Amino acid sequence: MTREYEKKDPYKIIDEWDISESDYQVIDGRAIEEITLGANILATGGGGDPEIGLKWAKNVLDEDKDIVMVQPEVIPDDIQLACAATLGAPIVLTEKPPAKENTKKIFYEMERYLGRSIEATFPIECGGVNSPIGYAVGGELGLPVIDVDGMNRAFPELQMTTFATQGVPATPVVTIDDHHHCCVVDMGEKNKVAEDIVRNIAMKYGGISWIGCYPMTGKELKETGVLHSQSLAWNLGKTVMEARRKHDDPIDSILEFLKSDRGIPGAHIFTGKVMDIDRDFGSETTHGFSMGRVTLEGMEEYEGQDAYLEFQNEWLVAKIDDEIKCLPPDMIALLDPETGEPIRTDLIRYGYRVKMIAMPAHKNMRTPEGIQTFGPRYFGFDVDYTPVEKLLGIDRDE
């Protein structure tokens, strides 16, 4: 039986922080749709089915629970935060959707283990599932959601965050299965060991685990997170939806927004049709990861060229003919040319027509520790990291 979690009041918490109304925003149904779309684009082909997290967040709102997003700079240094997420094979999540009882137990056990109350939460990544789950959890438990995450994209492993590469441990991690069985993993600063253990636990759970992780203070969150990543996802989603309403080119709209709003020089690097897919849907041999390679045949101005994409849950490496165009942690998105809808690694099919864009990762992802943790050599590619701007010959505004 699930232990009772004491639901909090986000407005009471905000009042105790003594911050102004201009420093937080109330998230409604339209906002969560826009945030989820933007996060799904930034998720670089991974992050799971956005409908799962989106439906949960909307159900929370339908129950008249408030979801409130707070700007990171104004939160107190000494508050306790933690996040909730899913870990495991994305395809399994469609068969084992989220349950509010799991989340309540995650935070109950985290508070019990830490010996103090959690006052706010945040999404671990910009992903189709884990972004809206961050908001659903905040609304369900009465916790403010902070405008921050750990990568401004999605990545497949627990330790692949700016938090971990800048000294904040992922553990203790609370893991919950769909029957509310619980395990706490505390490996201190051994984040990769924690990832291996938690992933093995997820496989024993049946392929997916609900986790609570990255407990930290407000000061640590502000110093190590990707600040305003959720606002970026929100405004990106708004941009795509507006392009659809106006029948504008969504790909051009995305690139123009990223450049004008954040100085991010994204580039359209290929248009083509899917000709071949070699994929393993998260088996025991791949430890729950969806892995493989996609081949695209060029169309329009790219006719006569071929593109190749390597992936592990997310798109990792893009080549056009034999020339590398993007390497992790920089970002690749395959988008529907008509709608701008991102095409995930678990959904892509033979014959799909796509446009490929590439974008530079956040500067906190490009530190030496970051490149060691989630650069191309970590994923087994025998090549040193080169920034996408250099590979494509484009400039980035500072």
Order of helices and strands: HEHHEEHHHEEHEEHEHEHHEEEEEEEHH
Overall CATH architecture of the largest domain: 3-Layer(aba) Sandwich
CATH class of the largest domain: Alpha Beta
What is the fourth-level CATH superfamily of the largest domain? Answer: CV3147-like domain
Taking pLDDT < 50 over at least 5 consecutive residues as the criterion, the unreliable ranges are none
The biggest beta sheet reads: 7 strands, antiparallel
Number of strands: 16
| Residue fraction in strands | 15-25%
Q: What is the fold-level CATH name, i.e. the topology of the largest domain?
A: CV3147-like fold
How is this structure best described in words?
It is globular, with a radius of gyration of 20 Å. A seven-stranded antiparallel β-sheet has the order 14-13-12-11-10-16-15. A four-stranded antiparallel β-sheet has the order 3-8-6-7, with helices on both faces. With 398 residues, the protein is α+β, with helices and mostly antiparallel strands. The model has no long low-confidence stretch (mean pLDDT 92). Helix 2 packs antiparallel against helix 3 (50-62). The protein is 34% helix and 23% strand. It has two domains: 10-229, CV3147-like domain (CV3147-like fold), CATH 3.40.1610; 262-392, Beta Barrel (CV3147-like).
